[in-house]
Design a protein that fits this description.
This protein is an alpha+beta fold. The protein contains five helices and four strands.
Length: 137
């Protein structure tokens, strides 16, 4: 993402978002930004800001049982963020075990994983694994 395409107000709210999610959702593994934000296609007046959360454990993708829990996570997160863009955050919640259960999910996960990483649990261990040639979880 080119520096000139970043919006300072959005970046501030993204920082808040990461901190809030880490407190609201202790099981978060990754937080990523995906979609048009940061590209020339993004419209500061109209475009949403797509956020991807990957959580440990439960299957958050297709399970109707967790729809209310998903909504609760999103609502608690947004209410704790101050700013003008929080209502345009489009938060997708998945779990690692649900990502590869459906062909759409697999292509979605592959696309998201190539976008901007905002947070990764055990990131230092991840980098050490890459340097050593083995990615560790």
């Amino acid at each position: 993402m080119e520096e000139r395409l970043k919006n300072s107000e959005v970046e501030k709210e993204l920082g808040q978002l990461v901190n809030v999610i880490m407190n609201v959702v202790p099981s978060v593994r990754e937080i990523r930004l995906f979609g048009s934000y940061g590209s020339e296609k993004w419209d500061a007046l109209n475009s949403d800001i797509n956020i991807y959360l990957e959580l440990n454990g439960r299957r958050y993708l297709f399970s109707k049982e967790f729809t209310d829990e998903r909504k609760d996570i999103i609502n608690k997160t947004k209410e704790k963020i101050a700013g003008n863009y929080k209502d345009r955050f489009n938060i997708a919640i998945h779990s690692e075990d649900s990502l590869y259960q459906h062909p759409f999910s697999y292509s979605f996960a592959k696309e998201v994983r190539s976008d901007r990483l905002l947070y990764m649990k055990n990131y230092r261990r991840f980098l050490e694994g890459i340097r050593g040639g083995i990615v560790q979880k």
